[in-house]
Amino acid sequence: MAVTNINVRVDHDIKKEAQEVFSSLGLDMTTAINIFLRQAIRLRSIPFVIASEPERKTPKPGCMKGKIWMSDDFDAPLDDFKEYME
């Protein structure tokens, strides 16, 4: 098997973190990149799912009807604040 070199630019901190992860798995950076490339070739796509923000659903008006309760005296002044309201 012929071997060739490639140059990849990557953020310094990302490289450092990746090396720590791969080292804990018993891999060096070259082996990890080779695994990624072989998987990409085998699958003919990126070998993982790129996570995205979950879609937020806009609540429909009235969807909480019957689920919220307020006491009848909700708007009544609180006893603790009587002195400020005179």
Walk me through what this model shows.
By secondary structure, the protein is mainly alpha-helical. It has a domain at 8-51. Helices cover 37% and strands 0% of the residues. The protein is built from 3 helices and no strands. It has helices spanning 12-24, 29-43, 82-85. The protein is elongated and about 90 Å long.
What would a concise description of this structure say?
The chain is mostly helical and 86 residues long. The chain is built from three helices and no strands.
Q: Indicate the proportion of strand residues.
A: under 5%
Radius of gyration, in angstroms, nearest whole number: 30 Å
- Look at the helices and sheets and give the structural class: mainly alpha
Overall strand count: 0
List the helices and strands and how they pair.
Layout: H1 12-24, H2 29-43, H3 82-85
Keywords:
86 residues, mainly alpha, elongated
